[in-house]
Structure formats: structure tokens, C-alpha cells
């Protein structure tokens, strides 16, 4: 027999009034054309009527199948449709996604990119971090961190997320081929001090790199650094050329030995990420290089000393996590 409708607020008021006048349940039910059972149920639970949540349709997944699903999902190898197929579950992939979203210990996440490492890279990284894990914050404050960064007119990608009002049309994001024109910059910082940002024109080689260091690095260290500073650069070919190392020797620039495949150990990589989020906030796109360059410079100037200090202070933890990972990639 189908379930009847709930009593309306008006009917509930009538039942209470008639009951106060000593009407019987049979008489009230006949008067309202309702069953005696619904009237009696209402009078037994005056404060709770209509508030009890119905259990709904029973789940097709047994407790055993649910545990198997969560156990397999925690391994992180299969998508929802593959989980359904592999475990022969009697539910749809959308149901599986709903179950996983409601599980507090698992989250659908994008893989973090990391450079491809050979065993020799991991060994070198672990050895370097073991040597540096005892460095103090003061030691790390004496390092001048440097790197290049490319910015294009359309931003890093077109996957911008936003809260969409379903009553309006969806926002669109269109990219030019190869992201439009681009700007390459070189930057450096040490402790809480930033070097002036250098704009790199054309294809870079060792000679142009040396020109950049002469124009930007040397004035920075002369003005901001003490006698015990050390320069960090990654393993790009123009950084490792014979002419480049000859210039380092001539200028007596102390170099920090740097392990290959280690962007996660370089805090300036995180600084570039902070800068890119500011430059491309709200999926901003630029009409020309001059406009992009102006925003980049403003964003660089706005980077706070607190932000720089936080990045430097993370170095001891970076080294520790790299040692724990036996030279493998870290979350940074």
C-alpha cells in the first residue's frame, strides 16, 4: 500500500484542537478524511511528527564491498570506472565518486609534476641533503638563489576554476597558439632581499648570461651581501659552460654545489609560482609584452620580506624530507 501524504500544518492544528475537545481518534479521522493510524501517530509524537528522516533506498554495496572499494581506492592507481570494473561493483562510477568524496581520508587530486630521476640523481640528491641538513637558518640566509622564468601572454594553462552561477552562461577561456608572445626574466634573492629583475632578450648563451650577472648580480651582492655569501644556480647549459666558470673564477664568486634534477630544493622555484599566481590572477590574459612585463615587475616588487624569509626557512625541512625520500622528489 502506498505511503500517504504528510499532515498539513492546518490539519495538525485541527487535530490538536479537536482532541482538546475530547473527540475520539476515530471521529477526528472521519472528520478529516484521514486514517486513524496517521492521526494516532501524530498525537503520539506531537513534537517529532514529520521530522524523522526516511532511510531511503538501501545501498547496493555490502559493507564488505565498500571496504574493498576504499582499500583499492587508497592505493591511488584506478579511476572510478576502473574501480567498478576491477571489483565488479553493482553500482555506477558516479556512485563510487560520491562514496569517495564522502571519505575524509581520500581526495581526488592532480599529480604533482617532478623531473625524471635516475638512481645516480637520487644518490647525489640524498648525499647533498645529508651534508646540508645541519645548516642553520643563518647559513641559508647567505645563499643567493637564482633562476630564469618564462611568462607568456595567456598564462600557464587554460584550466582556471571558478564558482559558476548556473543561471548564467559559462565563462570561456581561449588561448593563442603557444600561449602568444612571451617574456623571459632572470631573478635572484637572498634572505629577505631581492635582486632587481632582469629581462632577457633573444636566445641566451654563456656570454649573455655573464652580461646579466655583471649587470644585476654583482651590484646586488656588493650592496646587500656580507663576505660569506655563496651563489646558487641550476644545471642549465649556459650556467655550466667553460666561459661561465672562467668568469666565476675571475670574479671570485663562490658557488654552491647543486645536485641535478632538484627544482624542489630551490626556493626560488616556489617564488616563481607565487609570482605567476599574482600575474595571472582571475585567468588574466595580456594583449602585448609591455603590459605583461609591467605586471610582472609590479608583482616582483610586491613580494614581501616575510614571504622570502619563509621560503629560506623551509630549506632545512626540504633537506630532511629529501633524505627521508632517499633522494626522491618531495612535496615542494
Automatic annotation (TrEMBL):
PANTHER family registered for this protein in UniProt: TRANSPOSABLE ELEMENT TC3 TRANSPOSASE, TRANSPOSABLE ELEMENT-RELATED
Name the UniProt record assigns to this protein: Tc1-like transposase DDE domain-containing protein
Where in this chain does the record put each Tc3 transposase DNA binding domain? 3-50
Organism listed in the record: Chondrus crispus
Which Pfam families does the record match to this protein? DDE_3, HTH_Tnp_Tc3_1
Q: Name one GO molecular function term.
A: DNA binding
Q: Where is the Tc1-like transposase DDE domain?
A: 143-292
Cross-referenced InterPro entries, in alphabetical order? Homeodomain-like_sf (IPR009057), RNaseH_sf (IPR036397), Tc1-like_DDE_dom (IPR038717), Tc3_transposase_DNA-bd_dom (IPR025898), Transposase_5 (IPR052338)
Amino acid at each position: 500500500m502506498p505511503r500517504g501524504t504528510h499532515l498539513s500544518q492546518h490539519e495538525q492544528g485541527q487535530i490538536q484542537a479537536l482532541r482538546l475537545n475530547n473527540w475520539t481518534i476515530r471521529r477526528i479521522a472521519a472528520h478529516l478524511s484521514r486514517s486513524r493510524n496517521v492521526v494516532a501517530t501524530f498525537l503520539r509524537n506531537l513534537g517529532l511528527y514529520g521530522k524523522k528522516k526516511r532511510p531511503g533506498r538501501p545501498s547496493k554495496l555490502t559493507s564488505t564491498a565498500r571496504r574493498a572499494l576504499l582499500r583499492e581506492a587508497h592505493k591511488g592507481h584506478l579511476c572510478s570506472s576502473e574501480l567498478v570494473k576491477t571489483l565488479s561493483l553493482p553500482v555506477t562510477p558516479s556512485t563510487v565518486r560520491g562514496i569517495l568524496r564522502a571519505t575524509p581520508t581520500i581526495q581526488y587530486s592532480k599529480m604533482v609534476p617532478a623531473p625524471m630521476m635516475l638512481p645516480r640523481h637520487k644518490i647525489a640528491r640524498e648525499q647533498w641533503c645529508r651534508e646540508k641538513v645541519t645548516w642553520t637558518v643563518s647559513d641559508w640566509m647567505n645563499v643567493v638563489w637564482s633562476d630564469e622564468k618564462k611568462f607568456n601572454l595567456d598564462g600557464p594553462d587554460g584550466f582556471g576554476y571558478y564558482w559558476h552561477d548556473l543561471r548564467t552562461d559559462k565563462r570561456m577561456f581561449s588561448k593563442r597558439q603557444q600561449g602568444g608572445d612571451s617574456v623571459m626574466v632572470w631573478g635572484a634573492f637572498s634572505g629577505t632581499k631581492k635582486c632587481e629583475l632582469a629581462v632577457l632578450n633573444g636566445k641566451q648563451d654563456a656570454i649573455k648570461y655573464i652580461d646579466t650577472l655583471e649587470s644585476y648580480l654583482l651590484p646586488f651582492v656588493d650592496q646587500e651581501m656580507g663576505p660569506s655569501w655563496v651563489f646558487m644556480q641550476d644545471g642549465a647549459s649556459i650556467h655550466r659552460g667553460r666561459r661561465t666558470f672562467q668568469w666565476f673564477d675571475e670574479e671570485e664568486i663562490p658557488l654552491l654545489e647543486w645536485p641535478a634534477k632538484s627544482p624542489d630544493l630551490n626556493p626560488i622555484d616556489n617564488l616563481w609560482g607565487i609570482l605567476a599566481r599574482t600575474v595571472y590572477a582571475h585567468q588574466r590574459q595580456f594583449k602585448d609584452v609591455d603590459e605583461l612585463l609591467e605586471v610582472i615587475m609590479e608583482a616582483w616588487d610586491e613580494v614581501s620580506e616575510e614571504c622570502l624569509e619563509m621560503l629560506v626557512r623551509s630549506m632545512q625541512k626540504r633537506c630532511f624530507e629529501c633524505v627521508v625520500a632517499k633522494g626522491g622528489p618531495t612535496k615542494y
